[in-house]
Design a protein that fits this description.
It holds the Pfam family Alpha-mann_mid. Catalyzes the first committed step in the biosynthesis of complex N-glycans. It controls conversion of high mannose to complex N-glycans; the final hydrolytic step in the N-glycan maturation pathway. InterPro entries: Gal_mutarotase_sf_dom, Glyco_hydro/deAcase_b/a-brl, Glyco_hydro_38_C, Glyco_hydro_38_cen, Glyco_hydro_38_cen_sf, Glyco_hydro_38_N, Glyco_hydro_38_N_sf, Glyco_hydro_57/38_cen_sf. The protein is α+β, with helices and mostly antiparallel strands. It has 15 helices and 44 strands. The longest helix has 31 residues, at 259-289.
């Protein structure tokens, strides 16, 4: 049961594929129904994926805002068809049953009165004493009539909220049926009740009761309804209950809780996707060429499967949500870390195999030639990169993998041992570069930051073919080139760099597209000028916090202290100003870094013509230090602008990176009821401008006031919020979060239908930058003196796909019999992303191609090295083949849709 708020569609689908195929391969069963009774709120992505998986029955949901529960019961609309926002024909309709009561346990599901239902829990395990084991009385001939009367009253009330007069009553709870005794007790006692009820139809108005599956229920529902159900669009966030003190409690805290784990989850997702693509090409290329490496690649498949399953496990609604006890979260993190390490090893070997020269298989088998450029020793330590030693006789090769099906430019950073270097691409052409300082913490208070004397950051912009491996050579140069100019406050310089003191007044960074102004005192952004239009827009960044309400705000719930509801904690006011301000400016990028005690904030502007020059790249490192520091603190970053996005304010947030949802601020439910899950994108807009924030991991976002977007960064709550975890959240770790900020111009035409009927989408630029943020190029280092074993470059596809098509995965299937081995087929998952044509109409993305039809591949497109292919469209989990496709250029994907194709490699 995946969480539905903080998960990304890649991991949600991958979990379904792994699960459905495992069940089929091991149990011989095809999944028929969905069952999601414990996620804290529900979104439209799961119903869509189930529909596209050929789930023919329906799906069951449970946890909705108590007001939705009441409305569904009052209007008898709890059985409905969930339709996607963009769907105008109903082809995405998924039958959904909303369980009418608040919880799925026996005491909460037989009817509206838990004090009655608890008497029908017949578990009595020797030595176990609970409230239900004390109350429950076994059924016999003397009490069966009275017990049946009371139970049927509850069942009748449950059925009364539906016009179809049929009820689904789950019989269980967490940690149940762990003793065979319980199964016998529940079954035996309920069968006595059912037999009595069914034998006395006159007494119970013809009712019939029996055990059944969800499929049985949906069949009865469809038969009684003649297939006619109401339709619904949208989602069910924010979830709220009234368990505590009889007042609403909004479950919006878990959108952000434990951000370090949410970032770790995305890191594994990133690594796994690249690994899947590289592995599919490498293993099938080796099979076709009958190379010895195929055995080693097949041996790696078990590691790949473990990485998939570890990622799938973490999508659980008490894992990625951060709502498990600290020792359980530690175990999750170890599994994520294992997956990341496994993926890194498989990637390196796959790259080595793909680039190995023909007939030169001996060295790659016996020698590790390609290694990742970065590593981490434990999950709770930051990623580190070793500086490459460069000398005149020994240049170093760096391999860059573009995991996207389109051509792209990508900023690449590596560490080098000296500044006198140049970069040459695989064709021998010199690539422009920039040398930045690497900063080390100093032990002296007077100079808290100092430049490293043995390590330098090399930045270059790589131009990459689609699905390609490209080698760049870093050579020794006679003199330093592309050195950044550095301005800094309170730092120690290095003789190779020109270091200037900070000037008085505001700070300005600019490129061809924009000028960005920063406040001279705080170092934080204050405005942006669009050079294309000349319009200056007030866009301010600030950091503040809410004081958490003790015993009310916790891992699940977000609730600011009601006594301080209108008073934000100005966390930066605790500091006289930033302890350090650094400006680094060079030919490829300019950036400003400000260091406060709780957050280090960096904003970077890229020069050049690539899509990365259209936005502001932002990094925050949040460090709450050791508790009890920053106790009951809910830290957020806020962007304030002059955008008039309505009154009440309207904000758009994404749903699992799949589509956008419109959110209208409702003041009466407080800020906690207006925080929404954001997994990739949030934006606000008026008739002229749109302010977009792209995120690299799930977090809560709100648009509480017009012109504002705020994103929760981290939360520390010392107390439990009484929703099941049993402890506070105090295991915060220093966390790096990454963003893109876009200020875009809107035109009046090209947006499709107008007004409330228009489906809102990000811009094409935003989609491109989001994909680069989530799935950056993978960088590898070639070990010294082994370069001669490898080819300089390969492209795994000979033509790019349209830039609105995202290759979500190319995933090798498991052999159904020998499940530790790969099969000779893979699932190609494609997503055609919707985009808003009104945004930045005059800007053309370099290397971007679009098509007017639904086609994905140009005529004659081939996957390099894979030989003949057999292609068939399938359901999204690959379980049910549909129509065959003769060639790649016959593959089609409709806008907004996911399409999955089973690709079998013939030779």
């Amino acid at each position: 049961m995946t969480d539905e708020a903080t998960t990304h569609i890649y991991a949600m689908l991958d979990q379904l594929i792994e699960g459905h195929q495992w069940v089929k391969n091991n149990l011989g069963v095809n999944i028929k129904t969905g069952w999601s009774v414990d996620p804290f709120g529900h979104g439209p992505t799961v119903p869509y994926l189930l529909k596209k998986s050929e789930i023919t029955g329906g799906t069951v949901i449970q946890r909705l805002h108590y007001a939705w529960k009441e409305w569904f019961a009052r209007t008898q609309n709890g059985d409905f068809l969930w339709r996607q926002n963009w769907d105008r024909t109903g082809h995405t309709d998924t039958l959904v049953h909303n369980m009418p009561f608040s919880i799925y346990s026996i005491r909460g599901s037989c009817g509206p009165h838990p004090q009655v239902c608890i008497n029908y829990d017949f578990r009595k395990v020797p030595g176990e004493f609970t409230d239900y084991s004390e109350l429950a009385v076994f059924i016999d001939d003397q009490n069966v009539k009275q017990k049946a009367d009371v139970l049927m009253d509850q069942y009748g009330r449950t059925a009364s909220v539906s016009p179809y007069n049929v009820a689904l009553i789950p019989l269980g709870d967490d940690f149940r049926y762990d003793h065979d005794t319980e199964w016998d007790q529940q079954y035996t006692n309920y069968m006595k009740l059912f037999n009595y009820i069914n034998a006395n139809k006159d007494r119970y108005h013809g009712a019939e009761v029996g055990f059944g599956t969800p499929s049985d229920f949906f069949r009865a529902l469809r038969a009684r309804s003649d297939g006619q159900f109401p339709t619904l669009r949208g989602d069910f966030f924010v979830y709220s209950d009234v368990f505590s003190e009889g007042r609403p409690a909004y479950w919006s805290g878990y959108y952000t809780t434990r951000p370090y784990w949410k970032v770790l989850d995305r890191e594994l997702e990133t690594k796994l996707r690249s690994t899947e693509i590289l592995y599919t090409f490498a293993v099938n290329d080796a099979r076709r060429k009958k190379l010895q490496t195929v055995r080693l690649l097949e041996r790696n498949y078990e590691k790949l499967t473990r990485a998939r399953q570890n990622l799938a496990l973490f999508q659980h609604h008490d894992a990625i949500t951060g709502t498990s006890k600290s020792f359980v979260m530690n175990d999750y993190a170890l599994k994520l870390f294992e997956g990341i390490q496994n993926c890194a090893a498989i990637q390196s070997f796959a790259v080595q195999c793909l680039l190995s020269k023909s007939g030169d298989s001996g060295a790659p088998l016996s020698t590790k030639i390609v290694v990742p450029d970065s590593d981490r020793q434990t999950y709770d330590q930051p990623t580190y990169r070793l500086a490459l030693n460069i000398d005149k006789s020994r240049p170093r090769n760096v391999i860059v993998f573009n995991p996207h099906g389109r051509r792209k430019t990508e900023p690449i950073k590596v560490l080098v041992s000296e500044p006198n270097v140049r970069v040459v691409d695989s064709d021998g052409s010199v690539v422009r570069h920039q040398i930045n300082p690497v900063w080390n913490l100093s032990e002296t208070a007077e100079q808290p930051l100092a430049m490293s004397k043995v390590c330098f950051e090399l930045l270059f912009i790589a131009v990459l073919d689609p699905l390609s491996l490209t080698t760049f050579t870093i050579q020794k140069a006679p003199n330093p080139e592309g050195l950044a100019l550095v301005y800094c406050k309170n730092c120690a310089g290095h003789s190779v760099f020109t270091v200037k003191p900070m000037r008085l007044g505001d700070i300005q960074l600019e490129n061809d597209h924009m000028q960005v102004l920063f406040d001279g005192k705080t170092g934080l952004m204050s405005s942006i000028v669009d050079k294309g239009t000349g319009v200056s827009q007030y866009v301010n960044i600030d950091f503040a916090a809410y004081q958490a309400a003790q015993l009310h705000s916790g891992a699940y719930l977000f609730m600011p202290d009601p006594n301080l509801r209108d008073t934000e904690k100005k966390v930066l006011d605790d500091y006289p100003g930033p302890s350090t301000v650094i400006i680094t400016s060079g030919p490829l990028s300019s950036e400003i870094t400000v260091v406060y005690g709780i957050v280090t904030h960096k904003v970077r502007l890229y020069h050049g013509k690539g899509v990365e020059s259209k936005g502001l790249y932002v990094e925050n490192v949040v460090d709450f230090k050791q508790p009890p520091k920053n106790r009951e603190t809910e830290l957020f970053m806020r962007l304030s602008s002059g955008i008039a996005n309505g009154e009440p304010a309207v904000i758009y947030t994404d749903s699992n990176g799949f589509q956008m949802q419109k959110r209208v601020t409702v003041k009466r439910v407080g800020i906690e009821g207006n925080y929404y899950p954001t997994t990739t994108t949030a934006y606000i807009e008026d008739d002229h401008h749109r302010l977009t924030v792209l995120v690299n991991h799930a977090q809560g976002a709100a648009g509480w006031e017009p012109g504002r977007i705020e994103l929760m960064l981290d939360r520390r709550t010392l107390y439990d919020d009484s929703r099941g975890m049993g402890e506070g959240v105090v295991d915060n770790k220093p966390t790096l979060t990454k963003y893109w900020i876009l200020l875009e111009t809107l035109s009046d035409d090209g947006g499709g239908s107008k007004g409330g009927d228009r489906v809102s989408n990000p811009s094409l630029v935003a989609n491109q930058l989001s994909e680069s943020l989530l799935y950056p190029a993978e960088v590898f280092v070639v070990e010294p003196d082994t370069e001669h074993h490898l080819r300089p470059a390969i492209a795994m596809i000979d033509r790019p796909v349209p830039c609105d098509v995202h290759l979500m995965n190319f995933r090798t299937n498991t052999d159904p019999v020998f499940q530790q081995f790969p099969s000779p087929s893979a699932l190609m998952v494609l997503h055609r992303k919707g985009f808003d044509c009104r945004v930045d109409k005059g800007y053309r993305i370099p290397e971007c191609q679009l098509r007017r039809d639904r086609g994905v591949f140009d005529s004659g497109t081939v996957f390099t090295g894979l030989g003949r292919l057999q292609i068939a469209r399938t359901t999204v989990t690959g379980m049910h083949p549909m129509d065959a496709v003769d060639r790649l250029d016959q593959v089609e994907v409709a806008p907004m849709e996911l399409a999955v194709f089973n690709v079998t490699f013939i030779d």
